[in-house]
Prior knowledge:
71% of the residues lie in helices and 0% in strands. By secondary structure, the protein is an all-alpha fold. Helix 8 (143-152) runs antiparallel to helix 9 (158-170), helix 13 (229-241) runs parallel beside helix 15 and helix 47 runs parallel beside helix 49 (842-854). The radius of gyration is 39 Å and the shape is elongated.
Amino acid sequence: MGGWGVNAKIREAAKRTSTNTFLTQRTSSLSLYQISHRTTHHSLLYNDLHKPTHPLLLIKPLLYSFSSCSSNAFQLFNEMPHRGRESELTLFYHVIGLIKSFTARPTSVTSRISHCLAFKVGALAHLPTSTSLLIAYSRAADFSSSWALFDEIVYRDVILWNAMITASVENQCFEVAVNLFLELMREEGVGFDSTTLLIVVSASSHMGNLTQGRVLHGISFKTGGLSDSFLCNALIDMYAKCGELSLSECVFEGMECRDLISWNSIMRGCAYNNYPEKCFCYFKKMAYSSEEADNVSLTCAVSASALLGKLSFGQAIHGWGIKLGYKDTSHNSFENSLITLYSQCGDIEAAEILFKEMKYKDVISWNAMLEGLALNQRIWEAFDLLHEMQFLGCIQPDSVTVLTIIPLCAELMFFREGRTVHGLTVRREIGSHLSVTNSLIDMYSKCKDVKMAEQLFKSIPGRDLVSWNAMISGYSQNGHSREAQYLFKQLLQSYSQFSLSTLLAILPSCDSSEFLQFGKSIHCWQTKLGFANNTLAVNSLTLMYVNCGDLLACFSLLQTVSAAAADIDRWNTAIAGCTQNGHFWEALKAFNIMREDPIIVCHDSVTLFNLISACGNLELLFEGGTLHGLALKTSMESDIRVQNALITMYGRCGEIENARTIFRLSCSRNLYSWNCMISAFSQNKDGRKALELFRHIEFEPNEITIVGILSACTQLGLLRHGKQIHSHVVRFGFQGNSFVSAALLDMYSNCGRLDTAIQIFRSSPEPERSVAAWNSMISAFGFHSNGRKAIELFHEMWESGTRPTKSTFISLLSACSHTGLVNEGVRYYNNMWELFDVEAETEHHVCMVDMLGRAGRLYEAYEFIRQIPTQPEPGVWGALLSACNYHGDLKMGREVAELLFELEPDNVGYYISLSNMYVAAGRWKDAVELRRMVEDKGLKKPAAYSLIDVGMG
Length: 953
């Protein structure tokens, strides 16, 4: 639980359990009930002072003895003779007593009955009685009746005004309370007192109106009201809630007579403004004063210990609380705060013991325990506790409960559990709370159910800015960029002010070059709103420019941002963004710019992780080794993310022994370490060791593990082992994963079981088929020389709404090449860009040259290479050399070989191909000379091998 969440719940607990609290769960001054009680008490004193002595008033104690039960009181009143035998004066005071009895816990019905009785005996002109009625209506949440009664009273004293202002505050009508105070100041013959100021200060506190609070402070000073400790406590609370803790401290230090509520108020103010050190300091000062700590004081101190992470301090206060007798009492705010303390400090066992031993648990106790379990990754225990909570008769989940559990479902993508909690909110009728609905929108968005999130958003009658932000973020996170931007434009028409969260919600929608202009407009809007140097805003803009491909703007932003926003996170954002978007050289460039930046920023493990990953993708062994040395030098080699990145980098660079060494020396391997090592073996064609490592894995495999080991089975052609892995897939429920499905298709296809591959492909619903599955199936048809089927499947893919990718066309062109469908292959290549927005790359060029070469159209292949707008890669010329070797075209083969010797002088395959052509043409002398050249260079051809499954393992 975050620090603010801790304080909120402790504040709520303090409100419910302490008779010393003031106005709100976040303060510890006088409560509204006490204010109104103070007003009522003044009224009743006034009543008693003007009561004449009468013998028949001896019946009054009898009436009061029945006042706890309203039905008995009514019965007694009905049995009393109303005229004749007893004087009207006696009846008058009996009615007043009855009204007083209803004021403690009034309802709308009892308040109206009291009103009728008062009217019947003519007591409405009696100010104390009218005041009691007004308070009763207010406490019954019938503010309109309070207002109507107040409006009918002609002669009003200060107590009546105070009662009406209190009623306004109690019913959340804070502006009305302030306006009433202004009207009172203009009223002739009636002045205000310190109680009036106290109530109006509380209204300003709720409104967060600092200017108004300062004015009231000045009036208090001018009228001498600061001698009232209750008013000073209210001012302390008001300044704290307005974020002016220093002014709260000034009022506190200026108090002549501080009581326990004063100390509690300043401590709660410190906690509210996130100054736990000051809170603890005031607690120590109070301990040395004459005041003895109560449950509110102890709760403040425990809360401060939790925020500071000082378990030992909290344990000492725990012991002190037990000594003072606050264990196993109905005042459980202290024990609730202790649950939070132990949970935040990682001692969840102590929190559980404390929770189980509590005799008086309220909903806050359960919520604190739920939050603690979630915080300590005891996820399923948290769900079990919620389940247990629902079967309690006296305590039921509230909005705070579901607001604790819904974000957990969102972060862990527990869709089924999230829907169950949604059902709970509907059943318990707490789904109408706006904060709950907003949380549900976020949960459904993160669980990829955008339609449900959209339905909830549209069902909200009074959306706030959080609702809009949650829905915009949901669209952005799920790739619905246009919907996010359309909703953002609607928001602009509804709100004039926005938050940083709005900016962070809309920027991820700019995830490609087509949205670059929109992203730039958001950048301008961000600058206009004053977020130019906000770290989160700058990082989001940096990532936006990287995703949109405008790296120049990205680096310009990094170098022009002020020192206030300069930290390692902005550079990590740029480097990670470049790495994730395939801009590996630019990631390395960003690191060099960072090192040259005049603002000294030190790299961290995240920086090294992304840089090493970039080197791995570029197969830069030297640069990767240099970064390895930097990690050792800065003591970051023990970071598990850095170790995993190094294993992957060395694996991609062919240095499998270095990868094994890092894996073997790692002291804190996780599942990803094993995945990286298995993938490294698979990438280096060592499937046997990958299988052997898989047998000794120390964790439950995930989808990445399965993909890596299936790749090893594919290399080895081990159908038996592949089937066993398929069983793992079914048992763990991974068959719905697109990468696993594609890997299974490849494995069965390469092992000669095209029928099984087709069965797996067709068994998955068409809407759920990923582009990887389509690509694998097209490739499988091509591999088995069924080009026509591959072409038919490509058209089926297009008609299903799945957009072809670069890999799709590689598989399709390869299928055309293997089955001699040259004209079809040329047509698809020519339409790649025009119809499918796929730009031809080296792999496509290789497929085209191979296809033309296989068909004997060598000169077309040669001209095709010449027409490539960029410098052709050696692999393209290599495909043509293989075709020349196959068709025995020595003249062209020699020309191509000479070119390749310059481009890749150490590739022995080119020398072997030309040598074979010399032999085929009978030019043995040239072949021998070429072989001698290979020996002089020290080049060796890798030995070929065959694999036979003889029951391995």
